[in-house]
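Slide 14.
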Amino acid sequence: MSFYGLVDGTEASLKKYLGALSGVDQVGADARAAMLATRSIKTSSKRWAIDTAISMVDLTTLEGADTPGKVQALCTKAVRPDPMNSDVPSVGAVCVYNDMVRIARIHLDSIGGEHVGVAAVSTAFPSGRASMAVKIQDTQDALDAGASEIDMVIDRGAFLRGDYIGVFNEIVQIRKLCGTGVHLKVIFETGELVTYDNVRKASFLAMAAGADFIKTSTGKVTPAATPPVVLVMLEAVRDFYTMTNTRIGVKPAGGIKNTKDALKQLVLVNETAGPEWLTPTLFRIGASSLLNDLLMQRMKMDDGYYASPAYVTID
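Slide 15: predicted structure.
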């Protein structure tokens, strides 16, 4: 099956659908991404851009050493990034392993953060190499704990050996498990897909299978969210909207560490997919250290000088 009537669930129909895709001009994509990277945001719009970027952050901790206290502190920061300034928006979501989802959800709700989502990485993150039964249980555990967003990884080995229908069916099964009330983000690990054509193919495959978002990377592999890769994915969601009248979100993750990087992402979005995607419902940035730099840049706009890094809490 396909959520948009593009694929009937058979391997033949999926191959036909993917085979009809145009290829990516690698030189052109690199050149356009480099050109857009030179664009600047006017000073009069910079405050809006910084606040927009803050609202798009999926504040993330995905370490084996994560503790309940660390996750609770992250949730507090997610709701009030600057505790001295209530004008600073909350982030889009907190992203954690599924054993930390309940802790995050309970703490967010206790501090007035009901509007902040909890995203759980799933399906044997970060490798994606496990049986489907394990992937389903992994996802169900996160849903039972209160996750409102699932960030699933695809099996890159299966994709690279051409088992597109296997990858497609896994996404369909996780989409069904999530139901209509939970957003599904599908992670490609673009650094392992090698070519822009593969990134475009994975994008259309995931969208036809029911993804609400397509996501570049786990943050565990380099290269991750390079500007040309994000450009290719933004072109894919734009073209998919033309085909289906449905907007799918994009989430770059990995390597976006400072305000300059984040604002370049906003330029990419605006100039490629369009201004309709400049909202947390359609664009997120997976990051941990980025939020502090955004806050420091915001403070500089208010005070005229950079605050000490000690002013902001350590992620």
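Speaker note: The chain has one domain: 11-307.
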